[in-house]
Amino acid sequence: MEIYRARWSNRNARGDLSVSSNGIRLRGAAFQHLRGSSYVMIGVDGQRLILKKSDDPSNLKLRLAAKGRIGEIGGKHLTQWLLEHGFNKGQYKTQLMADQVVVQQELA
Question: Could you tell me the pTM of the whole model?
Fold first, then answer.
C-alpha cells in the first residue's frame, strides 16, 4: 500500500519571515542571508525585530528544514516572547542589511 503525503508549498507565502506557534521560519532571501551562520541573535528595537548572525552558541540555532530550503529558529518560548513584544503570528516582509535581517511590525 502506498501512502499519500501532502507537500507544503510556498505559493501562498507573502513574506520571507513567518511567526508560527513553533518559532520563526525564514525563506527566500532572508534565509539565504543568514544561512552562513549557525547561530542567530534575536532582539527587538522599538517596532523592529532584528535577527543578526552570530557565532555564539548561547544564541538560538538556525535549523534547516524542507531539504535545506527553509530555516527554523526557536520554538514555543520564542513565539511567546515575540507575542509579548507585539509580533503576532503571521508573515512579515524583511529588509536585508550587512550582517542582519530587519523585520517591521506590520504583517505582509
Answer: 0.82
Q: Give the SS3 label for residue 101.
A: strand
Q: In terms of residues, how long is the chain?
A: 108
Q: How far, CA to CA in Å, does 10 sit from each of 43, 56, 69?
A: 27, 31, 11
Helix (H) or strand (E) holding 2: none
Name the residue among 98, 77, 86, 100 with its Cα closest to residue 24. 77
Q: Determine the straight-line distance between the first and last CA of the chain, rounded to whole angstroms.
A: 42
pLDDT tens per residue across span 7-30: 555 555 567 899 999 999 999 889
Which of 2, 36, 94 minimizes the C-alpha distance to 24?
Answer: 94
Helix (H, G, I), strand (E, B) or coil at 32: helix
Closest residue by Cα to residue 17 from 5, 39, 33: 33
Is residue 92 within 8 A of residue 108, CB to CB? The reply is yes
* Residues 37, 101: Cα–Cα separation, whole Å: 13
